[in-house]
Specification:
This protein is an alpha+beta fold. It is about 50% helix and about 5% strand. It has helices at about 15-25, 40-50, 70-80, 95-115, 125-150, 160-170, 175-185, 185-195, 200-205, and strands spanning about 5-10, 30-35, 60, 65-70. A 4-stranded mixed β-sheet has the order 2-1-3-4, covered by helices on one side.
């Protein structure tokens, strides 16, 4: 049995979500860098050995269990480290909104990168058209979330949660922070506050060396 988590990831990619949450919880973990996993090669082979669809984040728990899907990891860490308050507890008024928005992000926004970044995997015809369409659809989704959230400092109002880690990281991906500043003032405020959380500053610096940088 291991005494730490092992996170398979790449700086700036989706694994930043799990890295930030693990850091926020104070969990002991190490990172296995699998840069280049999206192409045939040794990095992809290493990831395929534990995750048959070769996606990041892939997390090995201290007992050897393999976890994938960032939302599942978020829920697991919230249960394992309740004092970190990554999620409102069951029965709290904010719990339904937290669960809905968490699943909404991973079921709607996140897949636009899967399809838009690798359109050739999904169409034999107009790959560039698919890329453009998914990027534009993503902007629409972000505008919907901007309208949905209230005016508090965080996505759930006064309560910080894993949702704010998602906004802090994903707002650095396309269309990028400049677009958010022009179109989503509330999400921009959440992202900036997440940027300044002392626990997470080293995570952001490691994954996004350029201020407001985008890697997707």
């Amino acid at each position: 049995m291991m005494d730490e988590y092992v996170l398979y990831g790449v700086p700036g990619w989706g694994s930043v979500l799990a890295e930030a949450m693990l850091t926020w919880c104070g969990a002991s973990f190490r990172i296995e860098d699998v840069e280049g996993f999206d192409k045939p090669g040794r990095a992809r082979d290493r990831l395929l050995a534990i995750n048959p669809i070769a996606q990041v984040p892939t997390l090995i728990l201290p007992d050897g269990t393999v976890m994938t899907e960032s939302a599942a990891i978020a829920l697991h860490l919230a249960e394992t480290y309740p004092d970190a308050e990554l999620a409102p507890p069951p029965g709290s008024p904010e719990r339904p909104a937290y669960l809905r928005r968490l699943v909404w992000l991973v079921a709607n926004v996140y897949p636009t990168f899967t399809y838009g970044d690798y359109p050739e995997r999904w169409t034999l015809a107009d790959a560039e058209g698919l890329r453009t369409a998914t990027h534009e659809y993503r902007k629409r989704l972000w505008r919907e979330l901007e309208t949905d959230i209230g005016g508090g400092p965080w996505a759930l109002g006064e309560r910080f949660s894993a949702l704010d880690i998602y906004v802090g990281a994903m707002s650095r991906w396309r269309p990028g922070r400049a677009w958010f500043e022009d179109n989503c003032s509330k999400l921009t405020g959440i992202a900036r506050r997440a940027d300044e959380l002392p626990k997470l500053i080293p995570v952001w610096k490691r994954n996004f060396p350029e201020p407001g940088g985008s890697s997707a």
